[in-house]
Design a protein that fits this description.
- It contains 6 helices and 5 strands, in the order αααββααβαββ.
- By secondary structure, the chain is an alpha+beta fold.
- It has a domain of 103 residues.
- The strands form 2 sheets. A 3-stranded antiparallel β-sheet has the order 3-5-4. A two-stranded antiparallel sheet has the order 1-2.
- β1 and β2 form a beta hairpin.
- It starts with a helix and ends with a strand.
- The model has no long low-confidence stretch (mean pLDDT 95).
Amino acid sequence: MTDFNELIPELGAWNNGKGIDPESWVGCVGNVPLAIGYSLIFWPRFARFEKYVLREGFQEESVRGFERCEGSTRTSVEWVMNHVHMKDLHHFDEPGTEAQFRYLGRLLKEIHEVKLRADFPDLKFIVEFNDEPGLDLIDYQLSFWQAEE
């Protein structure tokens, strides 16, 4: 069972120290524009581009640059173009903890698996999150690529 008090330490301070549940906390501190922004993280958008499936909003010149790397493959280009560091989800926030990044990474892995299957039922994907304890926080990252047929 997930300990949300560990993941969101300030929950216990709410309600004169009696605490608050995560959904009520979001209702108190969140806002609609932020929820809309988070929708793009928690229900990502993807696009087909030539032989690739990439996160929507990619730059073609980045794809071309990775294609020119020695030994590049469809898998290597998709991996690098689609990877997301958990630490980069909030550039100016508190640094986050291993427990928080591992929770988000596991959740985003499941979301990506479901969303890719829904958007591209004719394709198979590998979604990877390196869920190992003790990594440097920047190394908690998620990526996906098309499985080789």
